[in-house]
Specification:
- With 338 residues, the chain is α/β, with parallel strands linked by helices.
- It has one domain.
- It has eleven helices and eleven strands.
- The strands form two sheets. It has a seven-stranded mixed beta sheet.
- The termini are far apart.
- The relative contact order is 0.16.
- It binds iron/sulfur cluster (2 copies).
Amino acid sequence: MLITLNNLKTFIETFIKDGRSVVGPVKEDNYSLYKPLKSFDEVNLSLIYPTKSTKEYFFADNESILTYSWTEKNKINITDPKDPEGVVIFGVRPCEAVSYPIMDKVFTWDYNDEFYLKRREKNIIISVACEKCDEFCFCTSVGITPQTTEGSDIFLQKTLEGNYSVQVLTEKGKTLLTSLSSFIEDRDEKPIDYKGPDKKFDITQIRSWLESHWDEHPIWAKITLPCIGCGVCTYLCPTCHCFDIVDEGNLKDGCRCKNWDACQFAMFTVHASGHNPRDTQSKRFRQRVAHKFDYYPDKFGRTLCVGCGRCIRHCPTDMSLLNVLITIDKPIIKLLNR
Ligand code: SF4
Ligand code: SF4
């Protein structure tokens, strides 16, 4: 199946006119993000990645999970939030789409997180295969390619003629496409066969080294020296999912809020006693790497990183997760083993 660029524009704009919420990759002054669209003309498909991921459309950065108010003495009204509206997310890159099934594991593990799951059920993902990468991309090192379709409802791949081949992957995608089938042509063109970045490290070696070096190792202090614990890497990452629950309000009314949190923050693991088991930035960075490449695969069978490179591209001190992984994979690290 095929859709021309003009038909793709009309396809997306038909949703917008129908009152559906559609978000897509938009370039702002110094950054880019997935933003609600007013028109297809705002979409910038030449971006390798928007600065911010689509995570916030599934796992809100800040949301009220209940509100409360005192009506009279000893009586409290508790109100649940409204169900979220579903959005059509257009222009998602393949590695980012893989982040949704990876995050499903933790949000359905010991507790079904209904705030996340309702959005997962309603949101529709239209992904577009990559045609280029930069020096920060490493999807192929974590088992993903520019043509990976996991996590997408509809997958588009640019053809040599400049149109898009269309793959429908889920019932949600099928329903969406059926309503607008007049835009789709029943013919094929050869898609651009982009191979993606070269493989940069061996993920099994990384995991095996981490398994035996979860404790102190001189390499951590050395390689994490530039990290200032700002948390940008975790907030931009499509797979980081830590949050905190806080009550905000006063004696009359208020809300219970779920807010993003980050293992890179100095206060993240401070105990009530004042003790902090991760009292240095190197321990906090080690935790981030070990969680993504050892603990999460161990518990859920998936690496908690899709190789999008955002954490490297936008780190204010040029810390590079990729360089850390390459360093761990290097034979030299074996010489430092205790
Ligand atoms: S690695 Fe970079 S972005 Fe992440 S906490 Fe450290 S300084 Fe901030
Ligand atoms: S850890 Fe970095 S490269 Fe991996 S998914 Fe998160 S932002 Fe992307």
